[in-house]
Design brief:
two-stranded antiparallel ribbon, 27% strand, 5-stranded mixed β-sheet, 164 residues
């Protein structure tokens, strides 16, 4: 249930938390949001500086994402350079974007360690429960589609899922 590299919850813990959130629907007029975050520039760091540097970069990114999150949010590392967030009980799409922007902002400053500066960004895809899906698999799939749309945009951006 825990990622050994970052100490964050892993994919299995995230999926269990989403199932629990679905079983406890948000208050009227509110939503639960699932964010999928994929790092931009991580492969370059890993290729140029080695896996030990890549691992340290992932640990730093994990701490920055934890600092950017609200206290009640669950942040998970779901594999490689992909992270996810479950934000429960938020006030609609505008608030979902604001929360996503916090993760983008967390990586605006270069990551510095071992005397080196590393630039990475993040593509953030967001899907809301119940608006964008009522099953865990559906919500995660929609967040994934939104994340790929964000990757097609600027270096770092947040994209809400849109059925179209």
């Amino acid at each position: 249930m825990q990622d050994p590299l970052t100490g964050l919850p892993n994919r299995r813990a995230l999926e269990a938390a989403i199932e629990k959130a679905i079983a406890e629907p948000p208050a009227a007029g509110r939503s639960h949001a699932v964010y999928l975050l994929d790092l931009n520039g991580f492969k370059r760091v890993n290729d140029e500086h080695g896996h030990a540097t890549g691992d340290e970069l992932l640990r730093v990114v994990a701490r920055r994402f934890q600092s950017a999150a609200r206290d009640q949010d669950l942040i998970a590392r779901i594999g490689g350079d992909e992270f996810a967030v479950l934000a429960r009980d938020i006030e609609g799409r505008d608030k979902a974007i604001q929360i996503g922007d916090r993760f983008v902002a967390a990586l605006r400053a270069d990551v510095v360690f071992d005397g080196r500066s590393h630039t990475v960004g993040v593509a953030v895809g967001v899907a809301l429960y119940p608006e964008d899906g009522t099953r865990r698999e559906e919500i995660m799939h929609h967040a994934d589609l939104a994340m790929y749309m964000a990757k097609a945009g600027p270096q770092s951006s947040v994209q809400l899922y849109r059925a179209a």
